[in-house]
Design a protein that fits this description.
By secondary structure, this protein is mainly beta. It has 2 domains: 128 residues, Cathepsin D, subunit A, domain 1, CATH 2.40.70.10; 95 residues, Acid Proteases (Cathepsin D, subunit A, domain 1). The chain contains 5 helices and 21 strands. It is globular, with a radius of gyration of 19 Å.
């Protein structure tokens, strides 16, 4: 079966892009027409409708939504366009789930964390019901350093993005999910070429004339995060005279250390934004060092 993805983002994009070095070549597909094979539509329903919407909370520039799992909840999940589906060990125990394939894995931090896998029979996001969805199991103990008393139980992204056209309205703090067959875009938006490396949505772009491949990641807290190899290859620390540094975020694997720089221009396709604060990663290991 073919699916279509169109992410319509209104207002400020809290986490616009992460630049990295890559040999991955973009095919020039448009964001409004990206086709890949997925499972049959029988693995999800939308309460007899073709479109549905739900509110979200914006905490630390992350989209937080309520989800029910196997009839229990609500659980608090980060809605992450750069993520797949993950729950905490505590949630897995509460649901009586079997965890298999335990191993160690990395995240944006420099520490490794224990990871397992499980399956959940029913996932409900508003009126959307997903059946027999696979989830990773990773500790979210470090989230207290970011979200304080706001509990985070998991992350969900690709299972929804691969099935629906997703509209993110930051101004009204609302998500709208529409089945591709029922979607028709009307408006003055700009189409940007989009492709995927596994579950990661990628676009060609540039910062101040320097070309790169950028991940569109709603799970990152800042406007622009530049990976270590991209920073080193293009000598960005010297270019921007970056000297202010510190812990600029926290995620799976611990703190994220970066230097801060002011970028004049970010171009993604025909879209251009100006005067952004960028984080230049100082991570020595983990996802941002690759």
């Amino acid at each position: 079966m073919l699916w279509t993805l169109c992410a319509l983002i209104q207002g400020l994009i809290p986490c616009a892009a992460c630049a990295r070095n890559s040999n991955f070549a973009l095919s020039g597909q448009t964001a409004t027409l990206v086709r890949e094979s997925i499972a049959s539509s029988s693995d999800f329903t939308v309460a007899g409708k073709s479109s549905t919407s739900l509110p979200f909370d914006l905490i630390d520039n992350r989209i937080i939504i309520n989800i029910s799992l196997n009839g229990k909840g609500p659980f608090r999940f980060i809605f992450d366009s750069g993520g797949v589906a993950v729950i905490s060990p505590e949630v897995a125990r509460d649901l009586g789930l079997k965890i298999v394939g335990t191993s160690t894995d990395g995240g944006v931090g420099e520490k490794t964390v224990e990871r397992g896998a499980t399956a959940i029979s029913e996932v409900k996001v508003g009126d959307i019901r997903l059946a027999d969805e696979e989830f990773g199991v990773i500790s979210f103990a470090d989230t207290k350093y970011v979200f304080g008393a706001n509990r985070i139980d998991g992350i969900i992204g690709y299972p929804l993005f691969k099935r629906f056209v997703v509209k993110i309205d930051y101004e009204r703090q609302r998500l709208t999910f529409t089945e591709p067959s029922a979607f028709a875009y009307h408006g003055g938006g700009t189409i940007v070429a989009l492709d995927f490396d596994a579950h990661l949505p990628l676009v060609n772009g540039s910062i101040d004339g320097i070309p790169g491949i950028f991940v569109i990641d709603t799970g990152t807290r800042s406007a622009l995060l530049l990976y270590g190899p991209f920073k080193e290859k293009n000598n960005l620390r010297a270019k921007y005279k970056a000297s202010l540094e510190g812990v600029t975020g926290w995620g799976i694997g611990g703190p994220v250390r970066s230097q801060l720089a002011r970028i004049d221009s970010l171009k993604l396709g025909a879209v251009e934004v100006h005067n952004l604060v960028a984080r230049l990663s100082l991570q020595r290991s983990g996802a941002l060092a690759n």
